[in-house]
Amino acid sequence: MPGLVSIKTPPETPPLRISVSETPTHAQAQTPTQLRSEPVNSVSNSKPASPLPRRPPSPSPSRSKFSPRKPPPDNPNSEAALDNPDLGPFLLKLARDTIASGEGPNKALDYALRASKSFERCSGGDDGEPSLDLAMSLHVLAAIYSSLGRFEEAIPVLERAIHVPDPPRGADHALAAFSGHMQLGDTFSMLGQVDRSIACYEEGLKIQIEALGDTDPRVGETCRYLAEAHVQAMQFDRAEELCKKTLEIHRAHSEPASLEEASDRRLMALICEAKGDYESALEHLVLASMAMIANAQDTEVAAIDVSIGNIYMSLCRYDEALFSYQKALTVFKSSKGDNHPSVACVFVRLADLYHRTGKLRDSKSYCENALRIYAKPVPGTTVEEIAGGLTEISAIYESVDEPEEALKLLQKAIKMLEDKPGQQSTIAGIEARMGVMFYVVGRYDEARNSFESAITKLRASGERKSAFFGVVLNQMGLACVQLFKIDEAAELFEEARGILEQECGPCHQDTLGLYSNLAATYDAMGRVDDAIEILEYVLKLREEKLGIANPDFEDEKRRLAELLKEAGRTRDRKAKSLENLIDPSSKKKKEVTKRWPGLGFRI
């Protein structure tokens, strides 16, 4: 049975912060907002959970210059007053003051709504120039909606805002357009709509490059921000391209071994690891560690040591991995305390290491130590950190044949994340893992429900064309087969076939397993000719491209011979047992372990 892998778990994007300056500086009015990203924290995001840090909000709302205005009209709440050009700035200032005073966003929302209406009525002066005041008010309005968790209402506001400025008119307009696209991308990200989010970021980057050139340091920050988004979407080739550009820009504008370069190299190492290029990943991490040492960043050096340990473990260099983990553990305990989640994360990595080397008692001991820390988290620990740790520990319990305990941990992780915006893809990945575990223990109805829930979330988040989505469709199809829902299984296998052929190619192991499952399902439905066609195609692939040494070749050849023999009979025949027809490799699911490069989990 093709292996199931975990999705790239997009990390939490913090709620958009509402920040409107009363008198923007000249620099703010003339240049696009810079994007800053936190260094990649390899400790709190070690495998198999999402390896990325929390990304900060991209730009703040765009800003424009206000000239001193006359006092507002006597009754600013009247509809007629909205035509007064003095009212918009007055209401926007009230919204800003309301936010600053802590009175609550609902009152600020009312002021911002009326301000945007006033700016819209008064926009388009004699020169016909678009109103940047209107764009800014819409950005602030959308930010308030987001702070209230009303992201769906923020979307149309921002879509209106990005069409107000005209970038060719100058830097002010470029700033407004750039900020609008980045804020819209952040909002889509909070809704889990990854593809639409990335499309907005790409458009924002294009506007910024046209305004500043492609070597400006601020362009480098945006490239890095966008690279992180592509990693979250498991689009590693584009992420690598952007990260290389970021490195080039920072090397040109920063001192050697700068913190910016170190942060870029950690992200590049993450991408290389995900693509299976462990040697390149190790090289980037060593260079990043040297830069952090030069800048006296001991805690960051420890975080990089954890990432280096992960690479060594992927290369089966267990002694070197153990040394890296122990170095990091010593630093974290001394700098953060024994109960910090960073310490728990290293415990999980040590548990995985000892499990791989057959020291199961030590492995379980480290798991229990980590769980004790997660049970009583120190202040400042996020639920995402805890949920990620529980997910990693569950993978270890699953591998030592304790699926019930693993399921409890995954259910706890989902409960922590279900109310958090922007976590739908993460939850979908966890539900897919739960579906595999339910399937393994024979709870097929629960497996189907878990897969169905995961697929619904993945469709909503725009990941319906990813290889992972195709694998989950295949797994749900297998669960449907066990429940004798053959027609539903066939539909799922057919959809998965189109995706996996496109994303992985016909010779990939997941695609070959899907072909076998689809052929078996067609045979069970009485569509013998379709089943024969698929098996003949698979055998041709093995003979011409993959070789015939694979044990599945003989089995597929035997099954094809049986189908060809029966093709001359009437279709009214005794149906074969699906257990015998389905992909034989699925019977070995407890023994087989597979890993999606750098980011997956075992089944």
TrEMBL record:
It comes from the Eukaryota. Transmembrane segments: none annotated. Residues 23-34 have a biased composition (Low complexity). Pfam families: TPR_12, TPR_7. Keywords: TPR repeat. Residues 35-45 have a biased composition (Polar residues). PROSITE patterns: TPR (PS50005). Residues 1-86 are annotated as: Disordered. Residues 50-60 have a biased composition (Pro residues). TPR repeats lie at residues 302-335, 512-545. This is Protein kinesin light chain-related 1. It comes from Quercus suber. The gene is KLCR1_2.
